[in-house]
Amino acid sequence: MENMSSTTKYFILIALTRKNMHGYEMIMELEKIMGKKPSASQIYPVLKKMKSSGYVTVEKISGRKKVKSYKITADGKKFLADLNKRFDSLVEAALKNKIKVCVHCGCEMVKGAIQKKVNGKNMFFCCEMCAKSYSHHK
Ligand SMILES: [Zn+2]
To answer: How far is the centre of ligand 1, averaged over its atoms, from the C-alpha of 108 (Å)?
Structure first.
């Protein structure tokens, strides 16, 4: 649940960096970003929380009653930048587990690594050339 609302928070902030919008617009925008339409009951508590944290401000749209426009604040932008950094390092960490490093030349491969047994140990290489030169040297 907490996890879900932080994802929603993240996407709301991203949507608000594009333009200021009112609640309904935001639901439509989030549908585009997230691929599914969030419900108003999902959005409004998150907006309320972010407003009290100072990440968004609310402006009344002039001439129209009860229509509020949400706007991201400088604090909100900073918070989003921090979230982005955290997401980046998560993605990086996930990739690191998959990345193989050629023991000969040191280049990193996400896929296509060649696995060879050298002196009874499994080693990864980027190409046959590396595998050959490595085994010759050892
Ligand atoms: Zn190599």
So the answer is: 8
How far, in Å, is the centroid of ligand 1 from the Cα of 112?
11
State the SS3 of the chain: CHHHHHHHHHHHHHHHHHCCEEHHHHHHHHHHHHCCCCCHHHHHHHHHHHHHHCCEEEEECCCCCCCEEEEECHHHHHHHHHHHHHHHHHHHHHHHHHCEECCCCCCEECCCCEEEEECCEEEEECCHHHHHHHHHHC
Return the domain boundaries, the chain: 2-95, 99-137
75-87 pLDDT tens trace: 999 999 998 888 8
CATH architecture of 2-95: Orthogonal Bundle (1.10)
Predicted local distance difference test score (pLDDT) of residue 1: 40
CA of 91 to the centre of ligand 1 (A): 24
Q: How far is the CA of 123 from the centre of ligand 1 (A)?
A: 11
